[in-house]
Amino acid sequence: MSKVYSIKAVQKIPVDISVAWSFFSNPRNLQNITPPDVDFKVISEYVDDSMYPGQVIEYRLKPLWGIPFYWMTEITHVRDKKFFVDEERFGPYSFWHHQHHFTVIEGGVEMTDIVHYKVAGWFLGDVLNSLIIRKQLRKIFSFRFKATEERFGNWPGQTENIAIS
Asked: What secondary structure does DSSP assign to 37-81, as a single string?
């Protein structure tokens, strides 16, 4: 059986919680903080500008070698201006659980992403993860870090903080 992997990314953002929440809880903004070569598009016909429990969001993306993937997630938990959780319903992973946490700190917001994921394919999934998927996810979260800084500004002294295990 393949392993469950995790990612934790922490970023401080020099904006008010309302600004951060408004941007990150809008499903349409995800494509603005995803690398262009992934060709990430929200394709859901019915998507609100803010998330709510039970919301289903459909995407098309090309994360590897230009091969298109269909991905459907459900927003399972939302606590306004605190956190939301998306879980894969159909897509490239056998398991995907992504927590998005927002904590008010002096001077802005600390945003923490925690992802648990599992790659299908038993031990071959583990091989794919170590050779390709882990690197691709690091690239996506690294791009997100930089895109967030470009949009909202830099936090003095902050460096990229992404841990993958």
From this structure: GG--EE--SS--SS--TT-EEEEEEEEETTEEEEEEEEEEEEETT
pLDDT at 108: 98
b vs e for 136-153, b when ≥16 Cβ sit within 10 Å of the residue's Cβ? ebbebbebbbeebbeebe
- pTM > 0.90: yes
- Amino acid code (one letter) for 60: R
Residue 57 token pair: 């969001």
> Could you tell me how many residues make up the chain?
165
Please say whether the beta carbons of 73 and 87 come within 8 A: yes
Q: Both tokens of residue 64?
A: 């590897």
| Contact assessment for residue 73 and residue 57, using Cβ atoms and an 8 Å cutoff | yes
Span of 16-20, 92-96, 99-103 with lowest mean pLDDT: 92-96
Calpha distance 28→50 (Å, rounded): 9
- Residue 85, both tokens: 């959780």
Q: What is the pLDDT of residue 55?
A: 95
> H-helix or E-strand containing 140?
helix 134-152
